[in-house]
Write a structure and sequence with these properties.
The structure is a single chain. This protein has helices spanning about 1-65, 70-95, 105-120. By secondary structure, it is mainly alpha-helical.
Length: about 120
């Protein structure tokens, strides 16, 4: 009986020490994740703005090129169809994207290891 109480007391000390480690690990993981997410957001916004501008100006350039011809209306509708098909293609591709690993996977793994250790000791 006293042996089990000593083991549980030792586990309590280990758990108390590990809580500090978990807090440090959590703050490091949050900083890493924030740096990654903010860089991704900035790059996606820049890509979106530049791609949108280039598509608009390409469409205007094609329509202006056909302005004095009988194909003016057909070229305008062709540009609209191209934009619609491109948007549909991007939507279909985005449905198949793989989600990244859960950001706090490391914490979960460490907690599972500690739980396994506690089960073995008790």
């Amino acid at each position: 009986m006293f042996k089990k109480i000593r083991k549980i007391k030792q586990l309590g000390i280990v758990a108390r020490d590990r809580i500090g480690d978990y807090v440090q690990l959590m703050s490091i993981l949050i900083k890493i994740q924030w740096n990654y997410v903010s860089a991704q957001i900035i790059s996606y916004v820049a890509i979106f703005v530049l791609a949108l501008l280039s598509l608009v100006f390409i469409g205007v350039a094609v329509i202006v090129s056909f302005w004095e011809t009988p194909y003016r209306v057909a070229s305008a509708w062709g540009i609209v169809a191209f934009y619609a098909l491109t948007a549909l293609g991007i939507f279909l591709v985005s449905l198949n994207r793989v989600r990244p690993e859960f950001p706090l996977e490391t914490i979960r793994t460490e907690l599972e290891k500690d739980a396994k250790l506690v089960k073995e000791v008790v």
